[in-house]
Design a protein that fits this description.
By secondary structure, the protein is an alpha+beta fold. The protein has four helices and six strands. It has a six-stranded antiparallel β-sheet with strand order 1-3-2-6-5-4.
Length: about 170
């Protein structure tokens, strides 16, 4: 039953509906994803949006663990930041919520088997410490990523920037 990290019944219902639909679409749609803003009818911004996004992510992790699918699916939260014309480093001098772009954060359920295959990209990554809660038996991999894919490289388009939070069972970590 959902609701460990989400307290509003309408939000829990919308989240549970998305998760149930996503589990049914496994193998047909990849990746399984949703903007966290799709679970609420009010507009969230700044620190409130960041806190809500993290709670939705932890709810996703909790539910995937309960369903016994954590070895099969990787829960991910992507917090989009403004794009950059060049490969740029992480700026930890400003609060994260103030760096969020207009694009809403998204949760993903990635098929761990499909995530094993690299895609060509140009990128910079660095670990980021957000002081997130611990989840028993799980490791969170939190990092800043500035990147562009093959099409963006070929067209000399801008770099996407985001914070990623990925969840791994402890036994998957070397």
């Amino acid at each position: 039953m959902a609701g460990v990290y989400l307290k509003n019944k309408d939000v829990i219902k919308a989240f549970s509906h998305w998760l149930d639909d996503s589990m049914r679409l496994k193998g047909q749609v990849y990746p399984l994803t949703a903007h966290v803003s799709s679970f609420v009818e009010i507009e969230l911004k700044g620190e409130e949006l960041l806190d809500f996004s993290i709670n939705v992510f932890f709810e996703l992790v909790s539910e995937i663990i309960k369903k016994g699918c954590i070895a099969e699916f990787m829960p991910v939260l992507v917090l989009p930041l403004d794009c950059s014309d060049y490969l740029s480093f992480w700026d930890d001098t400003k609060p994260l919520y103030s760096q969020l772009s207009d694009e809403p954060p998204s949760i993903y359920l990635l098929d761990r088997d499909k995530a094993k295959f690299p895609e060509k990209s140009e990128e910079y990554r660095v670990p980021v410490e957000l002081g997130l809660a611990k989840v028993e038996g799980m490791e969170l991999n939190t990092y800043y990523r500035c990147f562009r894919d093959v099409m963006s490289i070929e067209n000399d388009w801008e770099f996407n920037r985001a914070i990623y939070i990925e969840c791994y069972p402890t036994q998957f970590i070397f």
